[in-house]
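Suppose you are handed only these lines of text.
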Amino acid sequence: MTTAQGIEALSHEHRHFPPPPDFAAKANAQPGIYEEAEADYQAFWASWARKLEWMKPFTKTLEWNEPFAKWFSDGELNACVNALDRHVRGGKGSRIAYYYEGEPGDRWTITYQQLLDDVCRFANGLRKLGVKKGDRVAIYMPMIPELPVAMLACARIGAAHSVIFGGFSPDSIVDRVNDSQCVALITADQGWRRGKKIALKANCDEAMKETPSIKHCIVAKRVGDPVEMKEGRDVWWHDAIGGQSAQCEPERMNAEDLLFLLYTSGTTAKPKGIKHTTGGYLTGVTSTHKLVFDLKDDDVYWCAADIGWVTGHSYIVYGPLCNGATSVIYEGTPDFPDKDRLWEIVERYKVNILYTAPTAIRTFMKWGVEYPQKHDLSSLRLLGSVGEPINPEAWMWYRDHIGGGKCPVVDTWWQTETGGIMISPLPGLTTTLPGSATHPLPGIGVDIVNDKNESVPLGGGGYIVLTRPWPSMLRGIWGDDERYKETYWSKFPHKYLAGDGCRRDHEGNYWFMGRIDDVMNVSGHRISTTEIESALVEHPRVAEAAVVGKVDDVTGQAIVAFVSLRGSDAGSHDLGDELRKHVGEKLGKFTTPKYLTFTQELPKTRSGKIMRRLLRDIAEGRMLGDTTTLADSSVVAELQERAKTEVHTEE
Ligand code: PRX
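From them, the structure of the protein bound to adenosine-5'-monophosphate-propyl ester can be written out as follows.
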């Protein structure tokens, strides 16, 4: 968690890695690209947009009615046609779109032609069930090929998808489905995770007791155990596509029609449905995928994220497919059956480009170099990192032990809201530094400002803001324009507030320092402190709760909960376990607090505001700052004492 001091803090990194000359000579991004984009950023984006296939070409580039953007708004296109039909028509039908590797070891390849056929059949199946243009469809699936098929089928018929990460609980499904009134829910019987079966359909059954808008639940068979199927509502995937043609007329979509919603945590308990539309989003993800990952025709590319998060949407599904890439999809965890699974996959498919998260890299470091060393990783030529700040040590380890000291490392900063990568090296042009995302991409306007909205000179830190619209930017929050304006556009006029602290060194490189708001980043997952607090206070024995993030060696941040109980209840180890479990059940296991401390009182100001800064200091074991505004200063001494004996789990 970034504090005021954190924003001021300066680290010094002197290691510089210029692009290898042979890489630079062949790179997709060549010198001049920044200047070209800067000369006319709208023309730059329009030229990328024209690389897509339009059913009706656009004549307008940007209409900016701050803070609402429209890009290419008189053009028409279909995202699925751009991802699939275009390549098949161009003679690339037999090209592999995905190498699929299931956790139990099942493997197969899916060509562009096969993917198109599967998508068309499923799209026809959806239409037959009554799903139509303008609807919203929820998708709650494991990492199986049916997941991208379901997304693309929705795109084909003009229904917006709302993918809900498979780790979320039934309650989280309910909130998301009801917020946007989804008409269908696509899931699987179960999923595989570290050899265990995850009860996806059962979670949907639980959720569907409270989601009246859902007319149909379509269930892909992944594991094969029997699941309940409710007559008239539930349909097996194989029945939905049974007898369906592999031809399906795509809808003509306006560039500004909704392509998908993706819910993300904000500073309140209610997740925000981030809206992404068709033309601008595809322009953003195809261009950045091509430039940042330097994608070449014969590359095998692997983004090891989950499609349930934005990284998977943009860099497993839409970016790579629109670029005609060959990608890997892996269903399970990196330690199943052993800790070398990822490296085995890299070797098997001769992966050239790998994109993963700092948490994963730090975990691999902990496991030891013997696991990657068992495999031939010489096919790799480029490495990417995403999701949280990467510490220089992890960056160097990644470069040395995975990249063999020869691959450029691109640390890519972006958000669900930005749709695509915003700040990142271009691997053939940029000199990289361990731990820095380096520079904004061509066409992107960024600044760092202080509390007074003044641009901070090089060498200083502050709030990162985006200073001009970009094609893949969010178009707002589903059903809540006010929250959109308030969250992103109100603190500094005419600037998009990303919510991250960042500093620029004297060379202008960007160094991210974590969130400045009440959002935690645990293993690259955005989790709101408020969401966890409200889950805790729902428990009958809890009176009040405050949640903060604490620095964690592996997961970036860990969740720390301070809980005061009703009456004279002092709590117990068992109750601590029960409360942590309660949060996991309520929101999803990945949100389970790692630390939990009981306290008689939470530290509050005289006006009754919980003093989070103080709690963060206590959680981190730091010297305490000024506590003079505290209503009852004995609370702090008690908390410090208790924090030493806190209930703690190593999950
Ligand atoms: O705090 C930043 C962090 O992740 C947040 C966005 O989270 P989400 O919308 O879930 O998207 C994650 C995948 C793009 C940001 O506000 N973040 C993401 N990438 C980086 C990062 N922080 C530092 N460096 C990064 N490369």
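What can we learn from it? The chain has two domains: 6-496, 519-648. The CA atoms of residues 37 and 443 lie 5 Å apart.
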